[in-house]
Amino acid sequence: MQEKSIKKNSIFNILTKILGMIFPMITFPYASRVLLPDGLGKINFANSVIDIFVILASLGIGAHAIREASKARDDRQELSKLATEIIVINLATMTISFAIFAIALIFSQKLQDYKILLFLASARILLATLGLEWLIVSQEEFSYIARRTFVFQLISIAFLFTFVRSPKDINYYMLFTVLSAAGANICNFFYSRKFFDFSLAQKLEIKKHFKPIFALSASVLASSVYTILDKTMIGIMRTDAEVGYYSAAIKINRMFILVFSAIVGVLLPRLSYYMENDKEKYKTLLNNAANILQALSIPMAVGLALLARPIILLFCGKNYENAITCMQILCFTVFITPFNTFIADLVFVARRKNAYVLYPVVFGACVNFVMNLVLIPRYGITGAAVASITSEALMLAVKIFLAYKALGGTLYFFSKIYQYAAGALVMGLAVVLLMLKLDQSVATVILEAAAGAVVYALVLLLFRNEHFLNILALAQKKLLRR
Q1: Tens digit of each residue's pLDDT (9 = 90 or more) over 305-339
Q2: pLDDT at 432 > cutoff 80
Q3: Buried/exposed 318-335: b ≥16 CB within 10 Å, e otherwise
Q4: How many whole angstroms separate alpha carbon 18 and alpha carbon 256?
């Protein structure tokens, strides 16, 4: 297979994630006002339950399959054999997941109260399995992913504004979430056939995948604590409205995290390939990616913390004021979460250090669960936010320690982090000064964000940050060509 341009892949994948940001910017303010916190809470509780079964069906298959399919991408016969093996495993895990879901629905009275929503949302289990997203990513088909995402988001938006008009339309909204989250997997099912030939007639080696999948699946299940268990436990121990507030805070933060996951998503197949074939390219690419993540995520986390109030009121309305403190606590996941993924996927998975993925995640999951049990009954969503940020930070600390060992006693990609932290601090002071002088509105929030970005860029210039200077030089070169 001809090697695709990382630059073009990055542009397409970042475009996909930007669409992923713009999409909720259009739909979430509308839905939060129509459904109100109680309705939004019901939707998010039901989705958080189904997310558990989606993860159970997919386990660690995706990361393992991307890594292995990336290596076999130049050999159609080998890729076909691998893809058939992965699909057989995935169909088995999907069947088990549906069976456990059915048992839980029958015997849990709490779930019975949400059975229609849960039944509608369960379509995501099937669609996620049949979507073969791992195969599309391993072939670096990011142009296709961008086009597919755009089309399905347009369809989803049309569905939302046509059918969701009042709090009573909660079932239609659930169908909208299914369509927007997994509808594109229908296209994947047909598009993926151009890369492989499914055949059960060949000799399959399914058992060899069990060990790496098991190691990754344990970490995937444990890491679901951060995105799923919080909302599920709030829904069980508190109220639907509080799930709605917490979901609003999470949603806004995750819109920005999507941008950073684009970088990791593009690089995993390429770094897995380089790790096997060119160690120097691996090291250079890893360093560049880490610096881009730091340069963007650290100031963004600070900015979201400072502008949480106007952003919540702008996106969700006055009914969601209770989500402001929660968002201020959780905004630092904008830095922590991408680096947890970065180290897990690009350092550990690329180097086949699957156990290193597992240990910190299980540790963090246990911390999160215990803290949730203690804090949610007394402090509600604020307690859940504190538990989430604390456990993710501890998990990152453990991963950094293990990454230091895996990379031979060095963390070269963190060598400039003090520059980004200093720039974010000065930027934060500038934004605070503007906030004290200006009334908060959409225009002033945009002005404050723009001013903060300029101040941050100036600080990086003062440090003579090589990565920032390279970006400026590249931009200047492009302009001069025109």
Answers
A1: 998 888 888 888 888 899 999 999 998 888 898 88
A2: yes
A3: ebbebbbbbbbbbbbbbb
A4: 9
